[in-house]
Amino acid sequence: MFAAAGLQERWPPLLEATEDAGGIQRPVEEQALNGVIIACVRALLPRLLTVGQRIVLEETFLRHKTSREIALMIKTTPGNVDQMRRRGLRRLYWALMS
Q: With contact defined as beta carbons under 8 Å apart, do 58 and 50 qualify?
């Protein structure tokens, strides 16, 4: 996972104290964990969400597109995109919390 994140040269990680959190930052571990979380969420998406919800969430969070841009892409209204995003996030939330 560290090689995939491009961080294999930074092992062991430098530990830096943070002023606001009062803890220690571990950038290599955090990036590796983020990669694992993203992989798990991506594996859940096809089973939990409709195709439209999945497209909306991927375009929003991975490609940083606006509701209007997504609406033009999937031929619907920005309000409908917002509704699909809310419903998709709600389904994902409940799947992760159960």
A: no
Q: What are phi and psi of 2, to 5 degrees?
A: -65, -40
Same domain, 26 and 56: no
Cα 96 to Cα 98: distance, rounded to the nearest angstrom: 6
Instruction: Give how many domains the chain has, as a whole number.
Output: 2
Q: Find all residues with CB under 8 Å of 54, minimum gap 6, and list them.
A: 45, 46, 88
Return the pLDDT at 60.
95
Give the other-Cβ count within 10 Å of 24's Cβ. 10
- Best CA proximity match to 73, nearest among 45, 50, 52: 52
Within 10 angstroms of residue 54's Cβ, the number of other Cβ atoms is 17
58 and 78 in one domain? Answer: yes
The whole model's pTM is what? 0.62
Q: Mean pLDDT for the chain?
A: 81
Q: Give CA 47 to chain center in angstroms.
A: 16
